[in-house]
Design goal:
Blueprint lengths: L8 H20 L3 H13 L10 H5 L1
Helix pairs in contact: 1-2
Length: 60
């Protein structure tokens, strides 16, 4: 099955940055529903969910 063309590298980086910022805010507020919505958005955008967490948290 053919895959849809991917976003440009700059757009992809911008999307990931936006998701990371919103994920961090959801974590800070303890908002499980927002975190779930962000994981769904990442999946829709074909972005791996582990990229939402900052590298320092994902590595530890």
């Amino acid at each position: 099955m053919a895959k849809a063309p991917s976003n440009s590298a700059a757009r992809q980086a911008s999307l990931i940055n936006s998701l990371q910022l919103r994920y961090a805010a959801a974590v800070a507020h303890g908002d499980a529903e927002a975190k779930l919505a962000l994981f769904r958005e990442a999946a829709y955008l074909d972005i791996r969910p582990e990229l939402l967490e900052p590298a320092s948290l994902a590595a530890g």
